[in-house]
Amino acid sequence: MTPPEQKSLLIKGGHLIDPASKIDAPMDILLRDGRVAEIAAPNKIRAGGDEKFDARGLIVAPGFIDLHVHLREPGQGYKETIATGTAAAAAGGFTSVCTMPNTAPVVDSADWVEWLRSPERKALVNVFPIAAATRASRGTTLTDFAALRRAGAVAVTDDGKPILQDEIMRSALQLGAELNFPVVQHAEDTRLTENCPMHAGPTSFRLGLRGQPASAEAAIVDRDVSLAQQIHESRLHVAHLSTSDALRAVRRGKRARARVSCEVTPHHFTLIDENVGDYDTNFKMNPPLRSAADREAILVALADGTVDAIATDHAPHAAHEKQVEFERASFGITGLETALALAITKLHREHRIPLARIVELFTSGPAHVFDLRGRGSLAKGNHADVTIFDPKKRWTFEAARSRSLSRNSPFDAWQLMGKVVATIVGGRVVYRAD
Amino acid sequence: MQPPSTPAYHAAFPVYPKNKPSKNNPAKNHPVRGSLLGIEHLEAYEILALLQLARRMNPVKARPLLRNKRIVFLFYEASTRTRTSFEFAAKSLGAITTLVHASGSSIEKGESIIDTGYTLRAVGADCIVMRHPSAGAPHLMARHLDIPIINAGDGMHEHPSQALLDAFTILKHKKSLKGLQATIIGDVFHSRVARSACHLLTKFGVKITLCGPPEFVPEVAATLVPGLRVTRHLEDAIRGTDVIMLLRVQTERLAGQKISLQDYVSRYQMTAAHLKLARRDALVMHPGPIIRGLELTADVADGPQSVIVDEVHNGVPMRMAILARALGRAK
User: Fold this and answer.
1) Domain at A405, CATH number
2) Domain match, A18 and A162 both
3) From the list A279, A400, A412, which residue is nearest B140 (CB)?
4) What is the mean pLDDT of chain B?
């Protein structure tokens, strides 16, 4: 990753929120050699620091971690590259991103995992590859989890496709349990969702589109949670959870002390199926935008601790893949640059979820899901990954000015609150708001 | 591999389209005035104006309101009555028309809808009448072109000209729509005709009952417009109704469903005996093509209450009105 910096950086005058260390107070932080060197009450750090960052009036948080991004390399560099995708991540305050393996070819070998982590990719933030759980994500033969892990993969998944066969999912969880390796599931019973571009409900009926029933997600989550309960020490992570029934299954697993975790996307806590309007393909993603009741359930779960992380499912697509018939348009939207602002605008301002909980969902929550050691918290000795943001700054997101190679965001021209001011990776400032 | 980007296309056609989609967000562009994408977003007064205009249209002795106007019929899906009826409507108003079919055109070679639209606009089309198997395809076209787009049926979404000609037909037999009861029987789920009819009739105070098995009339259908009623029992649906609208049973859609063709016929076929339950002056309607012996018996189709042929007949003046409005000649 980033080479250790010799210079030190003193972040002065900010308000530190570090949920893992239970800190929510004004603190100064000294970063040195890519690590957190010292944390102390304001003006108590003696060492000067080669550089100073004036964080007065700003929130200083551990670097944000996104468990779910599609950076499209290898093979689909016209949608996004590691370089452009991580630049967008930096602008959104993310210091670490976990990349999905549904590329061309699929990241199902140690070689591809190493390729992704190579400095030649010119990543601006830390890239943690998630590898395919089955060969070519065909859902039939498991990949070599041990080799993938040695190469640097943090989890396995067939994202984009679910692992449907019970036996394959069982053996994936079993192998994962032996290696202490999380299995990430894109929960969708594809037998129920063929040719369904959106959620099944009044809106899909009105628009004359086939709908994915909410049960298509819940059925798989239900089965997976049951398997995770049966298999001792297995680790299941439910990707982009979107329905209240699936949440119920996750709660069941957590109550039974199974190692089950889940993530929720900003678009699922912000939008509902009605927002598709008259076939706006920037509102088409998978899982689809759900009902108002599902969104309510997600908001409750974000507040009460059921949800472990906010993940963007950043899914860039070229204009020609979106400016087509709704049924033919690619699934997915970009999300790295709007995630924090949506969380502050919707969760904090509108639904009164404390800022500390939101920071947790971006930091220690996701770090814990994939065991990202030394990240997700600014304890002394940890990686010097820091996100500094202004929770009160109003701004307008313009998709045309995105750092991503693609523009497919439903939030274009949205007025939002809360903006990233600086992103620091390994002690080095990789993004600074202008 | 990337298809050529649209900016290059614009460079090749510097004149058209006149109002290019904004670079930031093409979706923000509104359809051109005169476009008819669906009934849902039309106001009642706009519908009334169209119906009144249709009444003044005479296909045999029409003024050449659309002389030298170029109208393209862009059909991605087969059609007999809608296409010929639009074509006669356009020609009787003096328009120049051409038909573009998905097969045997550049569409077959993989051209996108928008690029096809730009091409048609560049050759001088003043209006595009399009039918497409994907819901929302005309909306996509309308967002990118500066000429009116007429939806002649998009997937399972809407078929606005059919709903208008049905209302036109009903009004030839009934004084007003307000207070009428209508029953729509059959495969509502897959039917764009049913969706458009529900939107239109509800705007004028018609009480609508949908009838069919759950596969064809799911519970969610009742949410389409306020006041819709869903029932599984044909007798219950027909009793006392003023208008019976039948939908074609698409036999290929019954495959894999719980209900068999025989079941459907025995439970939902419109027979002379059933018709007696409706009001004595009830109308029997059907968007066609009808399958005798399936959704209705031959004696109902040919009976005195059937206005199925009138509907086709009324399609021409109705579509004359739609085209005249589209091209700003609704005087």
Assistant:
1) 2.30.40.10
2) no
3) A279
4) 89
**Chain B: closest CA distance from residue A115 (Å):** 22
Is A313 labeled as catalytic in the residue annotation? yes
Instruction: Select the residue of B6, B136, B220 nearest A326 (Cβ to Cβ).
Output: B136
Checking if the pLDDT of B18 tops 70, the result is no
Q: Which helix (H) or strand (E) covers residue B38, if one does?
A: none
pLDDT-derived band at A379 (thresholds 50, 70, 90) equals: very high
Q: Are residues A203 and A150 in the same domain?
A: yes
Residue in chain B nearest A411 by alpha carbon: B25
Token representation of residue A97: 């991103």
Taking the alpha carbons at both ends of chain A, their separation in whole angstroms is: 26
Domain of residue A333 covers: 63-369
pLDDT tens by residue, B114-159: 999 999 999 999 999 999 999 999 999 999 999 999 999 999 999 9
Nearest to A320 by CA among B121, B117, B4: B4
ipTM score for this prediction = 0.90
Q: Which residues contact B122 (CB under 8 A, 6 or more apart)?
A: B13, B15, B16
Residue B213 within a domain: yes
Does the pLDDT value for residue A287 go beyond 70? yes
- At A75-90, the pLDDT tens digits run 999 999 999 999 999 9
Please count the other Cβ atoms lying within 10 Å of the Cβ belonging to residue B271.
13
Of B3, B26, B156, the CB nearest to A208: B156
Indicate whether A331 pLDDT > 90.
yes
Q: Distance, in angstroms, between A281 CA and closest chain B CA?
A: 9
The verdict on B146 and B199 lying in the same domain is no
The helix (run of H) or strand (run of E) holding residue B35 is none
Q: How far is A278 from chain B (nearest CA, A)?
A: 7
Q: Best interface-test mutation with B: which of A199, A212, A325 has the largest number of B CBs within 10 A?
A: A325
Task: Report the CATH number that the domain containing residue B221 is assigned in CATH.
Answer: 3.40.50.1370
Strands A28-32 and A23-26 turn out to be: unpaired
- Give how many domains chain B has, as a whole number: 2
Q: Please state the pTM of the whole predicted model.
A: 0.93
Q: Would you give the DSSP letter of residue B244?
A: E
Residues A69 and A101 in one domain: yes
The count of other CB atoms within 10 Å of the CB of residue B18 is: 9
Which tens digit of pLDDT belongs to each residue from B227-262?
999 999 999 999 999 999 999 987 766 666 777 888
Q: Are residues B136 and B62 located together in one domain of the fold?
A: yes
Residue B1, in any domain of the structure: no
Mutate to test the interface with A, among B140, B141, B196, B210 (most CBs of A within 10 A): B140
Arithmetic mean of pLDDT over chain A: 96
Query: Is residue B331 situated within a structural domain?
Result: no
Question: Is residue B184 domain-shared with residue B212, that is, in the same domain?
Answer: yes
